[in-house]
């Protein structure tokens, strides 16, 4: 099929078409040849774009880490301020509000990233985090109602959750594609540094901010403490909002995106095994990790004499800091050991340290430093394996046209596991005892090893563009017809033009 205003050439055994457009060539531009068709492109467009996408992902993930961890100590404060109102049910509702929002954000922004663009996902998530954090900071119940305060906080945290949840597909897909442009061999370690390596700093940052504010305001002004802590969460996303507005989607997305008539059913038929693997392992990890993170402050406070808030925060800071070496061990191991083996090693840590903490709980809690070390090692092993690798594996397992969507589904299933775990955490403690939260972690570690071994692909050292090409050939063999590619922006000093580039699979 040919059109008067199109020039076509053969790529991947299908017609490749570029609609012609009159674009003036600026002095600083260079001509880039694609087969027989010349595309005028600004000489500095590609390089800043890939680096900015990586930096934008990094700053987004630390914001998410802060928001996920700030409730750990705020829960302790609320139990001290409002013991009669802040019951287990209310505590769970406020904590789960973020999770419910994150599930929605991961699903919606995941699709948005594929259909509209990675940049659009960044802008929307940043805006929602700022809005949600602002509402949480100024939350107030009607006529001073404490119950109304916690409903207001639930809504605010839900909005924040949509933003932080959307960060997962937006940041991870963009970072993996941008890094793939620069290096395939080191894509895994660099991706982990700028995503989970930064995300993991959110825990120590949140507890450190809490300790600083608590020391400055004093324990007689706890209402001021929790509001300032929520308010600090506004600054992180605001600091990168301008740069996110300026970035472009990575080149891999611009060349391989499917924006209309996306063949989701064909994609599911191709990736069903990987989807079970990424969804299942993420569910198991978050089922254990999130409630143990959110409620670790209350666990520590129940062990410490008089439940002193400052002492609880100090032990909490040690707990989250012990987990950090695990993150960087995973970064080091993901290439030489491979993605799957590193994942299974992390789940093995859940089995070992979960059983140690669970079976020896009564004795360990009488030796606080030893309990914190064992508890922290369980987190460290989880962070080294599934906590580190889930984002990377989910970003690598799928082709670019559906990467955001399937990544979002996997992350959303993971957060559903976190919500279920958070909901079940208190009943497990009350009916079975605190030791069983750790024993169940060991059971989840066993299931995680099985799921990883049988369902997860290992994309160590594989070029993402190769999977994109194979996915396109798979679609063509199955009769799909559509266009691949998006509008390419050509930005110069004095003009801004666009040309549309797409692969047309229709004959």
TrEMBL record:
Lineage: Eukaryota, Fungi, Dikarya, Basidiomycota, Agaricomycotina
Keywords for the protein's UniProt record, in alphabetical order: Membrane, Transmembrane, Transmembrane helix, Transport
Superkingdom classification of source: Eukaryota
Gene Ontology CC terms: plasma membrane
Signal peptide: none
Domain spans labelled Major facilitator superfamily (MFS) profile: 53-460
Keyword hit for Transmembrane: yes
InterPro entries from the UniProt entry: MFS_dom, MFS_sugar_transport-like, MFS_trans_sf
Subcellular location: Membrane
GO-annotated molecular function: carboxylic acid transmembrane transporter activity
Membrane spanning residue stretches: 120-142, 190-213, 225-243, 282-303, 315-333, 345-364, 370-393, 405-424, 436-456
Membrane-related topology note: Multi-pass membrane protein
Protein name: Major facilitator superfamily (MFS) profile domain-containing protein
Keyword Membrane: yes
Ranges for region Disordered: 26-45
């Amino acid at each position: 099929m040919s059109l008067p205003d199109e020039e076509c050439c053969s790529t991947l055994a299908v017609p490749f078409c570029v609609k012609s457009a009159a674009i003036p060539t600026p002095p600083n531009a260079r001509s880039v040849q694609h087969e027989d068709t010349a595309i005028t492109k600004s000489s500095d467009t590609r390089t800043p774009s890939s680096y900015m996408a990586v930096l934008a992902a990094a700053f987004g993930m630390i914001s998410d880490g802060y928001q996920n961890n700030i409730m750990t100590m705020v829960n302790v404060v609320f139990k001290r301020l409002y013991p009669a109102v802040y019951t287990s049910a209310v505590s769970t509702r406020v904590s789960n509000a973020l999770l419910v929002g994150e599930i929605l954000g991961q699903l919606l922004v995941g699709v948005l990233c594929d259909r509209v663009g990675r940049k659009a996902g960044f802008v929307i998530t940043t805006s929602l985090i700022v809005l949600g954090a602002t509402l949480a900071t100024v939350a107030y119940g009607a006529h001073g109602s404490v119950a109304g305060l916690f409903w207001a906080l639930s809504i605010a945290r839900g909005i924040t959750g949509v933003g932080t949840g959307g960060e997962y597909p937006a940041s991870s897909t963009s970072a993996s594609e941008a890094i793939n442009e620069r290096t395939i061999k080191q894509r895994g370690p660099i991706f982990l540094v700028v995503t989970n390596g930064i995300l993991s700093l959110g825990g120590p940052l949140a507890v450190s901010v809490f300790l600083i504010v608590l020391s400055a305001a004093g324990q007689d002004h706890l209402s001021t403490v929790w509001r300032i802590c929520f308010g600090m969460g506004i600054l992180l996303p605001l600091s990168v909002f301008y740069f996110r507005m300026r970035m472009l989607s990575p080149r891999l997305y611009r060349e391989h995106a499917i924006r209309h008539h996306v063949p989701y059913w064909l994609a599911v038929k191709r990736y069903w095994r990987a989807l079970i693997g990424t969804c299942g392992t993420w569910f198991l990890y978050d089922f254990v990790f999130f409630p143990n993170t959110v409620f670790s402050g209350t666990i520590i406070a129940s062990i410490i004499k008089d439940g002193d808030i400052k002492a609880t925060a100090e032990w909490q800071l040690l707990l989250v800091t012990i987990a950090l070496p695990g993150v960087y061990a995973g970064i080091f191991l993901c290439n030489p050991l491979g993605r799957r083996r590193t994942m299974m090693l992390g789940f093995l840590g859940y089995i070992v340290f979960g059983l140690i903490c669970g079976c020896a709980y009564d004795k360990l809690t009488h030796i606080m430093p030893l309990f914190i070390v064992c508890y922290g090692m369980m987190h460290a092993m989880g962070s080294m394996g599934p906590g580190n690798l889930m984002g990377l594996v989910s970003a690598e397992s799928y082709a670019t046209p559906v990467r955001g969507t399937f990544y979002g589904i996997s992350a959303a299933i993971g957060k559903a596991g976190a919500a279920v775990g958070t909901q079940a955490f208190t009943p497990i403690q009350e009916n079975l005892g605190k030791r069983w939260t750790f024993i169940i972690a060991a059971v989840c570690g066993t299931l995680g090893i099985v799921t990883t071994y049988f369902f997860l692909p290992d994309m160590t050292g594989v070029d993402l563009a190769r999977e994109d090409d194979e996915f396109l050939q798979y679609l063509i063999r199955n009769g799909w017809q559509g266009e691949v590619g998006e509008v390419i922006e050509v930005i110069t000093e004095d003009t801004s033009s666009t040309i549309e580039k797409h692969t047309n699979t229709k004959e």
